[in-house]
Amino acid sequence: MTADEGATAAVQSGLLVQALSADGVDTVDLAGAVAVPGVVPKPRIIPPGSPKQPPAAAPGQEERTTAEQHARKPVDQPRLKAVRETPRPASPSALEKANAALAETKAAESESARLAADRQSQLADTEAEVADLIRETRELRDRLKAAEEQLESARKSLGTAAAEAKQAARAAARAKRSAMLAQERVLRLGNTRD
């Protein structure tokens, strides 16, 4: 609980939009701290002689109290002056915070859009590559099928050629035997004339 009634009322209103800062000497500055200006009541000024005001001192006491205050003043003043002169850290307003959050959100949106465009481009490239490979695979299958058909045909031709070569070799062997027999006959007939 703070001694500053205005600050207390602002906190209890539930309408604060920024943190309050108190130094214990001056009243808390509420400008821009409450969402709806004028909702927080102004602090009451307590008239002299009211129950919250300390009772008035006797004439002799008042002089002594004033003298005591003057005597203590030089001791307290440097510390109070230092407190008053210390600059308060400026806290960002709600609008500044909202603008910062908006800037972060826009940056994140931009980065997400860039990544999505990159992924879309990669997807298009991959789809094109897959389509090329499918087409090439079909062409290779067709070529393989044609080569297999040519191989089968060549094997059949090889079988036929092998059989024909075998027959030709037999025929050549028979012809050679016949030629040898004919030559022997010619030789025999030539020898019988002599």
- How many beta-strand runs? 0
Helix content: over 70%
How many helices? The count is: 3
Approximately what portion of the residues adopt beta-strand conformation? under 5%
Q: Between the first and last Cα atoms, what is the distance in angstroms? A: 161 Å
Largest sheet: none
Low-pLDDT residue spans: 72-76
Summing up helix and strand content along with how strands pair, one would put the structural category as: mainly alpha
Mean pLDDT: 78
- Secondary-structure element order, N to C: HHH
Report on this model:
The protein has 194 residues and is mostly helical. 70% of the residues lie in helices and 0% in strands. It starts with a helix and ends with a helix.
Write the layout of secondary structure elements.
Blueprint: H1 5-13, H2 59-85, H3 94-193
Provide the descriptors you would attach to this structure in a database record.
single chain, 194 residues, mainly alpha, 3 helices
Task: Offer a quick outline of the entry.
With about 190 residues, this protein is an all-alpha fold. The chain is built from three helices and no strands.
